Amino acid sequence: MASGRVDLDGNPIKPITICMIGAGGFIGSHLCEKLMSETPHKVLAVDVYSDKIKHLLEPSSLPWADRIHFHRINIKNDSRLEGLIRMADLTINLAAICTPADYNTRPLDTIYSNFIDALPVVKYCSENGKRLIHFSTCEVYGKTIGCFFPKDSPLRQDPAYYVLNEDTSPCIFGPVEKQRWSYACAKQLIERLIYAEGAENGLEFTIVRPFNWIGPRMDFIPGIDGPSEGVPRVLACFSNNLLRREPLKLVDGGQSQRTFVYIKDAIEAVLLMIENPARANGHIFNVGNPNNEVTVRQLAEMMTEVYAKVAGESPIDTPTVDVSSKEFYGEGYDDSDKRIPDMTIINRQLGWNPKTSLWDLLESTLTYQHRTYAEAIKKATSKPVAS
Ligand SMILES: NC(=O)c1ccc[n+]([C@@H]2O[C@H](COP(=O)([O-])OP(=O)(O)OC[C@H]3O[C@@H](n4cnc5c(N)ncnc54)[C@H](O)[C@@H]3O)[C@@H](O)[C@H]2O)c1
Ligand SMILES: O=c1ccn([C@@H]2O[C@H](COP(=O)(O)OP(=O)(O)O[C@H]3OC[C@@H](O)[C@H](O)[C@H]3O)[C@@H](O)[C@H]2O)c(=O)[nH]1
């Protein structure tokens, strides 16, 4: 497994120690899995939760048991953080509040989590001469230029006005009272701070801008492994509706567009960044799949079709229902209109391309959702309600 592995320039890859903050989340769990099963690297896994990586931590007879150690730490207030960053060769920061339902209901937590709490991580990396891979977001681009043209303008069809490029696209945010942009703004400011640490103090950094990575273990199913009233991201919302045989809720008509990339494809890109520092340092990378674009309505229709196939159940008579964003998310919600990543830079630096079609990634993800949750949902919904 470990021997004979070489980087993109043919040099042998030396085992390193990685301090991964937010290792217990969706992306972290897949990255830990990849690092344990395919590389010789060690992981100091930092998070407040460990449920999603439990299968990698126990039992102690696992072949990688001595290469992954979990540290239950809240990075807001724990003096052990600097020690862990010093012990590692590389820090990867995934920790954040990053669910749209939180942007306008917990705006302060969102800003603190995405900016203030990330500050010591950047500082410790810079002061100790350690490399940093920081997770930002495609939301830093905000709205596309195209959305400001009249609906029937042919300019809307011109990629120059909607394809998002790391080095040339502007970042266009909405008003302060629409607090999605506070998340975007906090992420953008930490990017700028990291860039400045690189420019002034020589911090070796890579910034990742994920474009809707989806797959197994994303978020939670309300009432099963998360709060009943919780609102996860769209994959888990729609999965929950399908599992419960309820209509999928289309916010403001489901007209927003997204490109979805399979988590396993995206993790390949992160591994290339980890193992090719000379090609990744100093860069910001879009990581997404421009070929998998759909409107949210089309996503709902495809998920309904795929779920019927994997669960062997016919769809319900009314598979979707429209809801207003105010009803669904509360006052002050705003949305990103369209997100197509330009892949030129990641292609040039790391030769990475996504592989999995939207249909295929939904098929494997919904198979997982069905296997993991269908029984639990049946039990939960058949329980008599206490009077
Ligand atoms: N999944 C995507 O498509 C996507 C898109 C854009 C950006 N991102 C970014 O990627 C990163 C990871 O996203 P994810 O989808 O895995 O989210 P996630 O919520 O599943 O994972 C984040 C993890 O960070 C942990 N965390 C948060 N605050 C912490 C703290 N103070 N101390 C310790 N741990 C803390 C959480 O417990 C959680 O396990 C985030 O920065 C997010 O903004 C993800
Ligand atoms: O049940 C639902 C849930 C969501 N939606 C819509 O589906 C779209 C996608 O919603 P998601 O919850 O997946 O989140 P978004 O794509 O807006 O943001 C996502 O990508 C950028 C990251 O930084 C964010 O952390 C991530 O959540 C939005 O237009 C939302 O309004 C529905 O129509 N119905």
Automatic annotation (TrEMBL):
Transmembrane segments: none annotated. It is found in: Cytoplasm. SUPFAM superfamilies: NAD(P)-binding Rossmann-fold domains (SSF51735). GO terms for cellular component: cytoplasm. Keywords: Cell wall biogenesis/degradation, Cytoplasm, Lyase, NAD. It catalyses: UDP-alpha-D-glucuronate + H(+) = UDP-alpha-D-xylose + CO2; UDP-alpha-D-glucuronate + H(+) = UDP-alpha-D-apiose + CO2. One of its GO terms (molecular function) is identical protein binding. One of its GO terms (biological process) is UDP-D-apiose biosynthetic process. Residues 18-288 form the NAD-dependent epimerase/dehydratase domain. Its EC number is 4.1.1.35. CDD domains: Arna_like_SDR_e. InterPro entries: Arna-like_SDR_e, Epimerase_deHydtase, Lipid_A_modif_metabolic_enz, NAD(P)-bd_dom_sf. It is an enzyme of class 4 (lyase). This is UDP-glucuronate decarboxylase. The lineage of its organism: Eukaryota, Viridiplantae, Streptophyta, Embryophyta, Tracheophyta.
